[in-house]
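Journal club prep — side note

Before the paper discussion, L.F. wants everyone to see what a predicted structure for a comparable chain looks like in token form. Sequence:
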Amino acid sequence: MFQLAWRGVRHNTGRYVATLIAIMTGVAFFTATGFLSDRVINALEGDAVRQYGGVDAAVVVDYEADGGQFADDLRIGQDTADAIAALPEVAAVGGDLSGSVAFLAPDGATFADNATGRLWIEDDELNPIDIDDGAAPVAAGEIAVDKGLAGDEDLELGDQVTILTLAGQFDATVVGITSFGNSDAQDSGGTVSIPAPTAFDWLNAGQAEYQDLYIRGTGDQATLVSAVEPLVPPGFRVQPGDEFLQDKQGEVSGFGKILKTGLQGFALLALFVGGFVIYNTFSVIVAQRLRELAVLAAIGATPKQIKRSLRFEGLVIGLIGSALGVAAGFGLAFVLMAVLQAVGVSLPGSGITVSPSVVYQGLFVGTLITFLSVMIPARRAARTEPIEALRQAAVETSPLSRQRVITAGLLVGLGALGMLFGPAPAIGFGALAMFIGVIVAGPIIAVVGSKIFRPLLGRLGLEGRLASDNIARNPQRTATTSNALLIGVFLVTLVTVAGTSVKDFAVAKINELSSADYVIESTGGTIDDGLIADLEAVDGVDAVTPFRREAVSVVGEATLDPTLAGTPSALSTGDFAALSDVADLELDQGSIDDLGPGQVLLISDLAGTDPIGKSVTMTNSQGGTVDLEVVGVLKFSLDSGLVGSFVDTPTFDAFVGETAPTVAFMDIATGAQSDTEDAIDEITALRPDITVTQGNALGRIIGQIFDFLINAVNGLLLMSVIVALIGIVNTLSLSILERRRELGLLRVVGMEDKQVRRMVRVESVLISALGTITGVALGVFTGWALIFGIDRLSEAGIAFSLPGGMLALVLVLGIGLGFLASLIPAQRSTRLEVLDAINAT
């Protein structure tokens, strides 16, 4: 029987072509995403080792503490770094300091706008950047640029350039060309290395401070950590080098692993949809071979042997298709990489990483899904009586069973009840039950759809009526074909509807928390009077209100809540009344009139319960501390989150010094926000330290993220739609092969070839229309039910948003692609001469 099965595969290769394509498509996507993801993971992990492999201990911001929005502003002072470097357990210390930089061309235009300036670390073991050509930057005014930036911008050794930094414009000389391991640069936009004599001025407003400290020790890491720990400033922690490296590798590889899992999940969905195609193909092939199978049964083959033979055929086809899919996936990975590079997305690493695990997984999942898809057709073939099979030429219409109608009705009904009225767990199970119910009801939908469309299609003539009747002749086959398309369309619709509703709700809620039209921030620089005057001169700008802000940490011993020890935060001062006029700054407790020297309006994150009258102690990066009495609590908003806690000017000056403003809120005349945007960007273009964001920027970002995720998910779901269209081509092609005699007789009695081809095209459009319309309807209802359930259980108040344009596009594409899928089968339908078609068996 195994020899017979192998011969069956060899002599029916034409019938299995579409099956192989369906398997190959899914496996190719699965392995291609795996290959690319492994490349990204390996490259990022290698970069982490390259960057941090020589670190024995690291002093880093404690992001695990509350107040993470201010953590990046904390700095380690030079005094602390010197004290650590003086320890006998320490061999060398390297400080990490970076900031945005750009270059100014002679014509006044800027280039390399996204480059990052980095403090050059003098210790070779702690510095991950190599000098490929020239020398390291050591003197004031010297810089080194990475080889990618040098090549892109035609920079050479000895070039005199004008560099734009956080502190303004400076003349510099390119003395070195660098690289970062196997990559050109440490930063995606390019890396500019700056020596200590100028780095603090250019990147940190002249203050000798560091974002992190990397330490090389003279002994074991545990002893080094114990020695450094007492010197670590509040808001920071010291980590052993091995733990620090492991965390960094986990951070960078974690993204790659999530990306790999997500992409391969969509590829598995495509393979799952391909299972419908494979099932349909084998059902038709088994129907066409019933006479052959009956002869085998008549000469002594048992049902078990017949079933085993067909399963072996499926196993062979699955293994061959999966192997071809793995090979195609290797080529597809290069195609995807080229496409990403064409749109400006550069992946870390080089080449393609062929992981044996990805190859084995591709072979396994493709073969397994094919084997499982063959089981039902094989079981049906084994149950067929020999004498019945000898009388049949093809599968005929089978009546719909009452059991199917009842099962489908119960699943759909119970699923709807669970989503609309059940507890939280019942919503998910209800959605799954309804989805399964619709799949089970596929043959019923095919028959009902045939009756609904028949009057309309009857206007097309005989071919329209026959096409409508044909989809009801074998409703199971029609349902299996349309269900493959239904799955993809359902998921696209559900993601679009539910995602759009949640996006609109989230954006609206976030925008309620912000009232400032623009926020101007300087990282490492200041917002000086000249910049304020230029901004105020823009037509449509009503006010520019600056304030001074300092990154601080809460000290634990004297706080109102000891658990807040080490929490990163911010302390600000300015004209509170003017700030309140342009931003959302209100008090939950206390009054601005109560604020005096040594007192503070506390940010809500630090307030806890009943904070009024209690004391809070804060420290800055220079090691200074201040005790403040809480006289009020700021109400939570996006604007108050930017301000932090608030003190009067004398208190701020005594604690921080007479520094310049670093943040400003802008008020724009009603309706003039879009008109002022270009003018504001033009003023701030030559200041790399300045970041301009619209007051509703977070809402806009959230909306853009949702849009990206919705579009990305829908784009990946197109893989399953492509496989479903392959199924339509496959099913129609095999159906035409099965109905050659019938088509020949139609041509004998007067139907023209163009009418036959039109009939096939209408069949394809009907099948795709059934899958598309059902998928859209099910997706819309499920999306609405999910939103309804969330509102019912949480009183969130999410409004249901129906993106009509997107849904119309899905309908048009689904039906239109069904028409395209019909072109090849329609052409084949009249390829045989009439007499040859009549004599076909």
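L.F.'s comment for the group: The mean pLDDT is 79. Keep this in mind when we get to the figures.
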